[in-house]
Amino acid sequence: MELVVIQVLVLVFSVVVHEVAHGLSAYRLGDDTAYRMGRLTLNPLPHLDPIGSVLVPLIMAYTVGFPFGWAKPVPVDIRRLNNPRDDHPKVAAAGPASNLILAFIFSILLGALVAIWGMPAGGAHGKPTALGFLFNLFQTGVLINVILAVFNLLPIPPLDGSWILSRFLPVEMRIRYENLRRYGMMMIFGFMMLMNLTPIGPMFRSLYMGLATQYIKVAESIARLGGG
User: Fold this and answer.
1) Cα–chain-centroid distance for residue 157?
2) Spatial separation of the C-alpha atoms in residues 136 and 72, rounded to whole Å
3) Once rounded to an integer, what is the mean pLDDT over residues 175-200?
4) Among 23, 92, 146, 205, which is most exposed with the fewest C-beta within 10 angstroms?
């Protein structure tokens, strides 16, 4: 139960930071829509989607052992950006970039925790303690943020990666590609089904676990400084 709570808390915090990063990037590039709508805040309430931020993560945490979800997208008016064609991909990239930065911060905290207090008794799955809670919190923070970054960079409309890819497509191909956005979440759920039924799943897991391992190595390097 404790691990489920940690996973959902980290997921909610991470998707909120992700959306705020989009809004801040847009604000700095000329579009103040998110600012005017009160979405440039880390207060989760304006960002939460009752289904995507609470219900779906809880169901997935109990059924597949790991939560997945989303927050309400921060509104971006592309026309208000200083240079819409070049700035919009930057706004899209800001979300995944924020998750990679969060993963790095969590890895530093994880390493510092072990360096100062050592590994919790029994490791991550030992008897619940304050140290064990923090260890699981920071470790989960690394993994969830890496998954969010990698998943959102996939070139599947409406994910962030699709906006980045669209910038570099020829006009005719871009128009056809943009038309796929009408299918929205259907494409995402279709991809998730493919992950469960085809080799795409293990490939995706290998990708995000490989990246997460690099962050854990950062934590291990810091932990060694304290003999942890």
Assistant:
1) 16
2) 27
3) 85
4) 205
